[in-house]
């Protein structure tokens, strides 16, 4: 029995995402939808959770968020987002091997895109439809839809999705053994990926090239292509790509004729188990059953029959669960052959029967002829039906005169009965109106009483709300007294500004300072911190008060001088105070120390980086990638420094400004745009810098809610 490897890419390149960042992306998206956001942004976040976040790893969750996006977009009448949601739901069904639903949603997406004239969306849907037909081995339709998508993409000159079309067309031509055409399209896909500088796409293109040159040029050329593809996938930590290449390398080793069979099969098992390890993290049972089937086949050829039977049955369970009929044919064949070699002829015969029966259903040409005959019979039956209908029409014509004669009598009878029914209806209706009037009067009495109760409850709620707001405002006054005073900043800094915009009344961001007399000298050390505590509003404010207290305790009571050791002390106190149950509350921030007798500024940085202006460029200074609090890393904070004379300005900020949604497309402001804005206003006065930042923020935010506290400190050195 010869094994023909075919790895079904449920939706090729729909999983090309940076999987190493999936958890961080998911957390960010959940944080967004928990807040008050515009419905269009909520739809976009739901669509992101559907694909790329959950599509491969958890298709059930992908369906959940895809349907949330589709329902909300339908409610708003947003056709483009409806099309995107439908397409991504179809992708999730493709990963669940539900081909019928996958085709339904991809066709739905295509029709919406066609209606609104969105050619790029049409091309994406056509490409996906082609992939579905590929997965169910309908190669003629698969090629047709793939080429239609490719034509649209070439008209649009859109390289962002042209890669997928070229790659899938190559895959289709490979399946029908048109290797020259397949190689041509794989090379085109590689050229597009090179232009886009996408290592992941280049890796998939090389993997496709390897499967073709194995058939045409030779094993060594194929192996070189696979190894180069591995390098790209390892660089991007793309587990799906690594899975595919290792399976192909296993297939290559098992088929080689120029090395010892045992050696080749042993090497192929090594590659198959590598592929299995990478596949475990995903719910793609189509691919996993394929890998397990290859492992079973290799063990059977090596004479390790117990292992062959064990992995065959695991593959069989997954193939049945994903309705992979082609894989079941292959596995039944392995089990039949293996049981025969062990002498268990009864089991061998059982699986041989299953193998032949299913193979006949899938591949027997007699079945195709039977379908043609049924079509002919259907056409013949349609003709008989047409003849019958003609006879019925003739009979109807003969009965027309009799029916006309009876019509007048029926009409008179109906008129008489209608009059009686009308009188009865009027009497019943009047009785109904009387009852309704009586019931309405009683209901009005009840409603008035309920209204009185609601008004009383509303008054109570308003009183409670005023009390809560008054308490929070009082908390704000307490927090404000602990923040840096302007006169203290003016005394120890040159020209400076502070932009402080809490999301709510009180803030989880804070800026803080203190002064320490230098021993044996009249000079002073000035400490300035800009920090972002866990949360915002009241919880964030509590954290900010706690952290300001610990900073004061470290420097003024414990006499800790170095900023990094101050952060170490604050982290220790936070863990002792609030992290006993494993909670990871803390803060990100920057603490700088300005020594009046030195040109050097020392600092410590937790996740946030100070930014300095050096000439006509901005520079992000180093920072430790860990929070002040309980986290994954427990290293001591590092002490960093730079020369005052090397920079004209220093800026300290939290993440609230860069993370604000707004602008014409409702997207984040982002750090790069913030840094370029700071560079552009460096020559303005501090007052104008603060005003420009505030105005830009409000214009960007527009009517959207502020998503986080904002704190930016700028100092001219």
Could you give a quick summary of the protein structure above?
The protein has 717 residues and is of the alpha+beta class. Helices cover 67% and strands 10% of the residues. Mean pLDDT is 82; it is low at 1-22 and 365-396.
Q: Judging from the principal axes of the Cα atoms, what is the shape?
A: globular
Largest sheet: 6 strands, antiparallel
**Spatial separation of the terminal alpha carbons:** 78 Å
H/I helix tally: 23
Q: Count of DSSP E strands?
A: 13
Description:
The chain is 67% helix and 10% strand. The protein has 23 helices and 13 strands. The strands form 3 sheets. Strands 2, 3, 4, 5, 8 and 9 form a 6-stranded antiparallel β-sheet that branches. It has a 5-stranded antiparallel β-sheet with strand order 1-13-10-6-7, with helices on one face. The longest helix has 118 residues. The relative contact order is 0.05.
């Amino acid at each position: 029995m010869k094994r023909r490897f075919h790895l079904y890419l449920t939706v090729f390149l729909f999983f090309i995402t940076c999987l190493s960042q999936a958890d961080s992306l998911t957390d960010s998206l959940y944080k967004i939808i928990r807040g008050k956001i515009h419905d269009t942004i909520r739809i976009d976040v739901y669509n992101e959770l559907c694909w790329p976040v959950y599509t491969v790893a958890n298709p059930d969750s992908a369906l959940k968020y895809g349907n949330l996006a589709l329902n909300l977009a339908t409610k708003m009448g947003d056709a483009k987002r409806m099309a995107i949601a439908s397409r991504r739901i179809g992708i999730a069904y493709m990963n669940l091997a539900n081909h019928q639903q996958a085709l339904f949603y991809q066709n739905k997406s295509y029709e919406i895109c066609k209606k609104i004239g969105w050619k790029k969306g049409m091309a994406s849907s056509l490409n996906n439809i082609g992939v579905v037909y590929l997965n169910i081995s309908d190669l003629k339709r698969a090629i047709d839809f793939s080429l239609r998508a490719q034509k649209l993409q070439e008209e649009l000159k859109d390289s962002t999705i042209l890669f997928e079309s070229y790659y899938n067309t190559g895959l289709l031509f490979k399946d029908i053994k048109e290797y020259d055409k397949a190689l041509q399209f794989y090379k085109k896909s590689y050229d597009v990926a090179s232009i886009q500088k996408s290592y992941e796409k280049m890796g998939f293109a090389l993997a496709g090239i390897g499967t073709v040159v194995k058939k045409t040029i030779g094993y060594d050329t194929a192996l070189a292509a696979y190894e180069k593809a591995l390098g790209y996938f390892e660089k991007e930590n793309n587990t799906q790509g690594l899975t595919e290449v290792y399976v192909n390398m296993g297939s290559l080793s098992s088929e080689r004729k120029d090395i010892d069979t045992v050696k080749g099969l042993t090497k192929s098992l090594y590659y198959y188990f590598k592929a299995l390890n990478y596949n475990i993290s995903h719910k793609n049972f189509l691919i996993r059953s394929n890998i397990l089937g290859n492992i079973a086949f290799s063990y059977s050829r090596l004479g390790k029959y117990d292992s062959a039977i064990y992995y065959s049955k695991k593959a069989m369970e997954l193939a049945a669960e994903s309705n992979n009929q082609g894989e079941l044919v292959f596995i039944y064949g392995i089990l039949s052959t293996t049981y025969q070699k062990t002498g268990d002829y009864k089991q061998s015969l059982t699986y041989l029967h299953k193998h032949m029966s299913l193979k006949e259903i899938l591949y027997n040409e007699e079945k195709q002829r039977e379908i043609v005959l049924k079509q002919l019979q259907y056409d013949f039956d349609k003709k008989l039906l047409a003849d019958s209908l003609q006879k019925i029409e003739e009979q109807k014509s003969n009965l027309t005169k009799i029916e006309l004669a009876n019509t007048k009598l029926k009409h008179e009878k109906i008129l008489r009965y209608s009059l009686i029914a009308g009188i009865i209806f009027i009497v019943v209706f009047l009785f109904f109106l009387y009852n309704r009037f009586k019931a309405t009067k009683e209901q009005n009495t009840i409603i008035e009483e309920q209204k009185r109760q609601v008004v009383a409850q509303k008054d109570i709620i308003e009183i409670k709300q005023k009390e809560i707001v008054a308490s929070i405002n009082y908390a704000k006054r307490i927090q404000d007294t602990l923040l840096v005073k302007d006169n203290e900043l003016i005394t120890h800094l040159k020209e400076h500004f502070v932009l402080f915009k809490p999301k709510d009344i009180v803030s989880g961001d804070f800026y803080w300072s203190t002064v320490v007399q230098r021993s044996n000298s009249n000079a002073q050390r000035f400490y300035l911190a800009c920090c972002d505590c866990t949360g915002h509003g009241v919880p964030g404010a509590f954290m900010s008060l706690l952290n300001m207290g610990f900073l004061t305790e470290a420097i003024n009571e414990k006499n800790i001088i170095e900023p990094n050791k101050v952060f170490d002390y604050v982290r220790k106190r936070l863990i002792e105070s609030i992290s006993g149950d494993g909670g990871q509350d803390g803060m990100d921030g920057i603490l700088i120390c300005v020594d009046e007798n030195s040109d050097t500024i020392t600092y410590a940085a937790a996740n946030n980086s100070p930014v300095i202006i050096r000439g006509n460029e901005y520079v992000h200074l180093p920072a430790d990638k860990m929070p002040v609090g309980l986290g994954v890393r427990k290293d001591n904070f590092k002490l960093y420094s730079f020369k005052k004379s090397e920079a004209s300005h220093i800026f300290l900020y939290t993440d609230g400004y860069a993370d604000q949604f707004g602008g014409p497309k409702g997207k984040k402001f982002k750090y790069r745009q913030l840094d370029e804005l700071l560079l552009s206003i460096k020559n303005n006065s501090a007052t104008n810098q603060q005003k420009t930042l505030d105005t830009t923020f409000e214009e960007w935010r527009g009517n959207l809610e502020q998503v986080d506290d904002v704190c930016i400190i700028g100092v001219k050195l």
